[in-house]
Specification:
about 150 residues; 6 helices; about 40% helix; alpha+beta; four-stranded mixed sheet; single chain
Length: about 150
């Protein structure tokens, strides 16, 4: 839910350890998408007990977008702002993923590459989310990618 990578979670760490250490996967993808119900739910008071705790792992994405964008005044601005939070959450979850020592080690040894994707449901278009890490600043570069499907002739 909400493409969350929880920080310091033993359950998640064991799920992560198997493919990285034993299956020797070469790529890890964090994929966010448009109209994400988890990201939308983060701003709503719900009577649920566990879902809000899970979604707390995504709250920093909203905080970052709040710091750089004014509150929306129109429906279109609100939709664009939601998109920015969804994309920022992909960045945040990649940061969380890199807090796990086995991922940090595998990535530094060149055994694993981490990718961020954003999928627009309305168009079926994926977008690779690239980032440059320079000291403490993340600069987002959103690069469209083509979808190529191979269909039997």
């Amino acid at each position: 839910m909400a493409n969350v990578v929880p920080v310091h979670d033993r359950n998640f760490a064991s799920v992560l350890e198997y493919p990285v250490a034993h299956l020797k996967v070469h790529n890890i993808v964090i994929c966010g998408h448009s109209e994400c119900g988890g990201i939308k739910a983060r701003d709503k008071d719900k009577p649920d007990s566990y879902i809000p705790l899970w979604l707390n792992n995504a709250i920093e994405a909203k905080t970052r977008v709040d710091a750089r964008l004014p509150q929306p005044k129109t429906t279109e601005e609100a939709k664009q702002r939601l998109t920015e939070v969804e994309k920022e959450n992909v960045h945040l979850q990649i940061e969380h993923l890199r807090t796990y020592p086995l991922v940090k080690k595998a990535e530094s040894e060149g055994k694993v590459k981490i990718y961020g994707l954003y999928y627009t449901l309305e168009t079926g278009t994926p977008e690779e989310i690239k980032y440059i890490i320079s000291s403490t600043l993340f600069e987002s570069l959103f690069v469209s990618t083509e979808v190529r499907s191979s269909q039997p002739g």
